[in-house]
Specification:
With about 280 residues, the chain is mostly helical. It contains twelve helices and two strands; from the N terminus they run H-H-H-H-H-H-H-H-H-E-E-H-H-H. It folds into three domains: about 45 residues, no CATH class; about 90 residues; about 130 residues, no CATH class.
């Protein structure tokens, strides 16, 4: 089957009938589609792709795994909505000359302006702006509940507790890896785990490697592919950033170490991605 929305459900149902279910990422099926796209051409392409000896298949996820992963998807959605609300509030206030720096850390300043009884805002605008303030408070409360739930799961999961011993990995990243990452036997080695490029909804991947456009024996590397498991990739880069921010006190970033040498000669963002790639290889058992 081609991996798509509901593919894991149907994979489980068909597997109960005794069939060997293999899910193929759509990106790997596309090259086998001849001419125009239709149901018959898609079915033929899936059969062709499934017969390739080097084809990679997506493991069918259990209901428990999908249910556990939902907390990260919902948390991402709420964070995006919080960012939208902050940007909207900041943009509306700027129309009245109230300028506040960007970033979620400055949301309290925006709220203080709206709730100040002596502010210079028009009386007609204040009730509308308070709707955004109330939405922000509600989103913050819900995100806090999800963070508490993730921290609880990290304490109860033995794998997550071991992952938290890796520098830069906290409860959120550890739980995400334990939940979203595939079984270790899916990859031959840790490098494959960091470099694989399956789509995040259908398999697992990080996309923490440079895009290649090599030919004639000449290697040409471009920007990071950013393909694959978006949530894990972003979390690993954030974790790597926390190590780099504390580089003056972190033993792994002192002069003479691999990270210390990278920081002295490479751009900061490149070092963050390189460290995130290294962290991905470390966590692969």
């Amino acid at each position: 089957m081609e991996a798509c929305g509901g593919a894991h459900f149907w994979g489980r149902e068909i597997g109960k009938l005794g069939h060997d279910v293999r899910l193929i990422p759509p990106a790997y099926v596309k090259p086998f589609v001849k001419r125009q796209k239709n149901d018959a051409a898609d079915a033929e392409a899936i059969c062709e792709a499934a017969l390739r000896p080097t084809m990679r298949f997506v493991p069918v996820k259990s209901e428990e795994t999908q249910g556990a992963a939902m907390v990260f998807r919902v948390r991402e959605l709420l964070i995006r909505q919080r960012t939208q609300a902050i940007n909207a509030l900041r943009g509306h206030l700027s129309e009245f000359g109230q300028i506040v720096p960007q970033g979620a850390a400055n949301a309290a300043k925006l709220i203080a302006i709206v709730e100040d009884p002596e502010c210079d805002l028009p009386a007609d605008a204040i009730p509308t702006l308070k709707v955004l303030v109330a939405a922000l408070a509600q989103l913050e409360a819900e995100i806090g509940k999800l963070d508490t739930e993730i921290a609880r799961r990290a304490k109860e999961n033995e794998l997550a507790r071991r992952l938290m011993t890796v520098p830069g990995i906290g409860p959120l990243i550890a739980t995400a890896i334990a939940t979203l990452a595939p079984p270790p036997e899916t990859f031959r080695k840790a490098r494959d785990f960091a470099a694989s490029c399956w789509k995040h909804a259908f398999g697992v991947t990080l996309g923490l490697t440079p895009r290649q456009h090599s030919t004639g024996g000449k290697q040409r590397l471009g920007a990071t592919t950013r393909m694959g498991e978006r949530s894990l990739r972003r979390l690993l880069i954030i974790g790597a950033n926390s190590v780099i921010i504390k580089r003056h006190t972190h033993a792994a970033a002192q002069p003479g170490t691999w990270l210390g040498g990278m920081l002295s000669r490479k751009p900061p963002m490149l070092v963050r991605v390189a460290l995130a790639n290294k962290m991905a290889r470390i966590v692969w058992p």
